[in-house]
Design goal:
- The structure holds two protein chains of two kinds.
- Chain A has seven helices and four strands, in the order ααααβααβββα.
- Chain A is α+β, with helices and mostly antiparallel strands.
- In chain A, a hairpin with a 2-residue loop joins β3 (about 130-135) and β4 (about 135-140).
- The N and C termini of chain A lie far apart (about 40 Å).
- Helices cover about 40% and strands about 15% of the residues of chain B.
- Chain B has a five-stranded mixed sheet with strand order 2-1-3-4-5. A five-stranded mixed sheet of chain B has the order 11-10-14-12-13, sandwiched between helices.
- In chain B, α9 (about 205-215) runs antiparallel to α10 (about 225-235) and α19 (about 490-505) packs antiparallel against α20.
- Classes of the chains: A alpha+beta, B alpha/beta.
- At the A-B interface, α2, α4 and α5 of A face α4, β10, β14 and α19 of B.
């Protein structure tokens, strides 16, 4: 199984799987989401054809797991850790600050398509709670004030690029 | 393996294979090793018994990266270039002192290895300069490693004397943060893979099962079932195909031991998995790992590739007739997949829902074949048990719980991180001696152990020994090893609500007691923590019936749920109710939250003497609940206040008072 190329088409991804059986369903879904950012209706139909499974089964599995998304994602994906350690260190206030600053709820994407806000069960960096990750980059020991500053950095990055 | 670091695979390999492995060993491009064609000298260098040029080790596990290790690394590289020093930079995993990350170790030729904490991009250069001048950076130094024949640093404690490490017994974590996880040779130099060589040479499958059973090793994932006993069920099945699954789907919020082991010492897991798979005669092994651990997956993939190259995996391992492949399966994010049968369904490409047992997976598991599932920590214990024997392992621990246990210590504690202690160590020792006590010297309230299935340890039970059975007596459980410390500013009702919210979201929905029951429990807890202004008469009645039913509901869920997740789901509520009844009472009867956490139960008032009448709070109030004229004291209308706390945040004169309970004003 090769690492899927970003923006690869579903056909290309499915080529990596030779005659895929049922147990390849989740890896295929993961690869498609990796390449396209989310699982579109068309993608799921194509996958179901290839695996010879009803679309309902494919969607049933995809909707069971937290990892799979059915809407396009923002440019920056914010994951707010809501593990126990983060919770006792005040992660709910951090989450509130993000919601307020970006004016979106968890699971939503900002209207300019810049941020998607996700709540995850545990990132596994409990010693540094509260933690968030933005596109895989970790920010630790946060406070509501700190997180707003971090978000502004990303917003400004976008604006300075617009100027160029 | 750890006591006598000089034993390696070369001491166990049959004559016919030694030359092949020597060749593999010498196949090395690094110039520093090239000059050493002698195996023993190479091993010595790989064990860092001395170095030829300065070596800088930087912890770039998830914890380190979170604390900014990537920026530190860049700054170190730039600094080395600017001062023109030729040093070798090695990225290692987590040593477990999360509170001091980013951690950088430096070893100069002829000197022992010294550990420095809190090395940021700003101070890295200064610290390096000091070390190169052979001075100790007093403010940041943590400890040094004792290495015979090397000059030690003055006035720097040894690792085994360090406040965080001295009470620990590091077996599973012995290599974490010390060796380069991506270099199989360093693992081998530390005695790694000897267990496989020894197993295939000296033991039958039954022997291995017997050794593990005799050692008393119990599943570290939470259940605590004796590992060797479980393996024998599968061993006795007469099937062509059997499977071994390593459960690395560390879903408990608050636990990160498995991640640290895989990131910092992936070969130990692989070796343990190979030996275990051999013991039951498995043809394929799976590692089911969370997709949220990208770094761990990367390290594991590399380690499996290397293990194959070295012939520890694949066809006819070490010339024997045993063959094994390890397949990585990425979990897609479902807490319930920690349950054995749900995990099996997930690997089969189905929704991760548990099924009734029996038949147990050891009889009928993955694809209908006998399957054994053990978690990462259990398997990481196996190599040492096989090498050193059952007696060595069972020599420490309590009567029914042997060996060590790794805990992820976090929350309101001074020193957070990975803690590996002997079974039988008290919670007090872990929190106060190793953890250094409560953050900001606040009062201790409880330790939450065992995650969403576990319970709390209150102050009067702090001396309880860590052991599978004893923890159950106070309504807690070992669980996978998350230890979250809470102080007086944490509300136990809120903590119970937090876990209930988690469980009801993660309930797979298959059986009704869990699906509906946990949801109802959450509703009841929500109603307790809701303020008066947002409830009408029906709500109030609902709240009272809920409170009356809460305990009965909990016992129904416990008794009638299908899987372990459901059966243990009410534990956080029951445990907090048992030990912190007064706190529930003040929420229910007085409608106050003594810890000041439950937002809707806080009352906001303005101190007329401190208020300057700047009108800022009135302007910022989203619900127009603040009235008052310019330069006159303002007033909060309690009926309109939505308890958002904005007024307290914006007030420059600290005139807004948060009132938590009747006695505080």
């Amino acid at each position: 199984m090769n690492a899927p190329i970003k923006n690869a088409s579903i056909a290309e991804i499915l080529k990596n799987y030779d005659n895929p059986s049922r147990d390849k369903l989740i890896p295929v879904l993961q690869d498609v989401q990796n390449a396209q950012g989310y699982l579109s209706q068309e993608a799921m139909i194509e996958i179901s054809n290839c695996l010879k499974l009803p679309v309902s089964k494919v969607f049933g599995v995809a909707s069971f797991y937290n990892q799979f998304k059915f809407q396009p994602r923002g440019k920056y994906e914010i994951q707010v850790c809501r593990g126990t350690a983060c919770h006792v260190q005040g992660s709910s206030r951090v989450l509130d600050a993000i919601k307020k600053h970006l004016k979106i709820e968890a699971g939503e994407t900002t209207r300019d398509g810049l941020f998607t806000l996700e709540v995850v069960a545990c990132i596994g960096a409990c010693g540094l709670a509260p933690v968030i990750s933005i596109n895989g980059e970790f920010y630790a020991s946060l406070t509501p004030e700190k997180v707003v500053k971090i978000l502004d950095q990303y917003i400004n990055k976008k604006e300075s690029k617009d100027d160029e | 393996m750890m006591n006598n670091p000089n034993i390696t695979i070369f001491d166990y390999l049959p004559e016919s294979l030694i030359s092949k492995y020597l060749e593999l060993f010498n196949d090395e491009n690094k110039e520093e090793l090239k000059s050493f064609d002698n195996k023993d000298n190479q091993l010595k260098l790989l064990r860092r018994e001395d170095v030829l040029k300065p070596v800088i080790f930087i912890g770039t596990g998830t914890c380190g990266l979170g604390a900014g290790a990537a920026r530190t690394l860049n700054s170190i590289k730039a600094h080395l270039e600017s001062i023109n020093i030729n040093a070798c930079i090695t990225e290692v995993g987590c040593v477990g002192l999360c509170y001091s990350e980013p951690i950088v170790d430096i070893q100069l030729p002829g000197f022992s290895r010294i550990s420095i904490g809190n090395v940021t991009a700003d101070n890295a250069g200064k610290i390096l300069d000091k070390i190169f001048n052979q001075e100790v950076p007093e403010d940041n130094v943590l400890y040094q490693y004792k290495i015979d024949g090397l000059k030690s640093w003055n006035n720097v404690p040894y690792a085994e004397e360090h406040e965080f490490l001295s009470r620990q017994t590091r077996w599973v974590l012995s290599n974490c943060g010390i060796i380069d996880p991506l270099n199989i040779k360093e693992y081998i130099a530390k005695g790694g893979y000897s267990a496989i060589v020894k197993t295939l040479k000296d033991y039958t499958q039954e022997d291995v099962c017997n050794i593990v059973e005799k050692s008393g090793l119990r599943g570290r994932g939470g259940g605590g079932f004796p590992a060797g006993k479980k393996w024998k069920f599968a061993l006795n099945q007469k099937e062509e195909q059997k499977f071994f699954i390593c459960n690395a789907d560390e879903g408990d919020p608050g636990a990160f031991m498995d991640r640290a082991v895989i990131e910092g010492d992936p070969h130990r897991l692989i070796e343990g998995l190979i030996v275990s798979a051999f013991a039951i005669g498995a043809s394929n092994a799976y590692v089911y790992i969370r997709a949220e651990y990208p770094l761990a997956i990367r390290n594991l993939e590399k380690a499996i590739k290397d293990a194959k190259k070295w012939g520890f995996l694949g066809k006819n391992i070490l010339g024997s007739d045993y063959s094994l492949d390890i397949i990585i399966k990425k979990g897609a994010g479902a807490f319930v997949c920690g349950e054995e049968t749900a995990l099996i369904h997930s690997i089969e490409g189905k929704r991760g829902m548990p099924r009734p047992r029996p038949p147990f997976p050891a009889i009928k598991g993955l694809f209908g074949k006998p399957t054994i599932i053990n978690n990462v920590e259990t398997l990481a214990n196996i190599p040492a048990i096989v090498l050193k024997g059952a007696e060595w392992f069972s020599s420490i621990g309590t009567e029914n719980s042997k060996g060590t246990k790794v805990f992820a210590l976090s929350g309101k504690v001074k020193r957070t991180g990975l803690v590996e202690v002997e079974m039988g160590t008290s919670i007090r020792d872990i929190v106060f001696t190793i953890g250094g006590g409560i953050l900001k010297d606040q009062a201790y309230k409880a330790v939450q152990i065992g995650g969403p299935s576990g319970g709390c340890v209150p102050e009067n039970h702090l001396d309880i020994k860590v052991d599978y059975e004893s923890l159950k007596t106070i309504g807690a459980m070992m669980g996978s090893g998350g230890l979250v410390v809470m102080d007086e500013h944490n509300c136990m009702v809120d903590v119970a609500r937090f876990f209930m919210d988690f469980i009801q979201r993660e309930s797979c929905g298959k059986c009704i007691p869990c699906r509906e029951g946990t949801k109802r429990m959450l509703e009841i807890l929500n109603s307790i923590t809701r303020g008066r202004q947002s409830e009408n008469n029906t709500d109030a009645l609902e709240r009272f019936t809920g409170i009356v039913q809460l305990e009965q509901l909990a016992s129904v869920i416990q008794e009638s749920s299908l899987c372990g997740l459901g059966q243990t789901a009410p534990n956080p509520v029951l445990s907090t109710m048992r030990w912190f009844k007064e706190e529930y009472d003040s929420h229910i009867y007085e409608r106050t939250c003594p810890a000041g956490v439950c937002q809707e139960l806080i009352t906001y008032q303005i101190n007329p003497e401190a208020c300057k009448g700047c009108t800022l709070c009135a302007k910022k109030c989203p619900n127009d609940a603040i009235v008052g004229k310019l330069k006159e004291a303002h007033y909060i209308l309690e009926d309109k206040c939505i308890k958002c706390g904005v007024c307290a945040e914006v007030c420059k004169f600290n005139a807004v008072i948060r009132k938590y309970s009747e006695n505080i004003i």
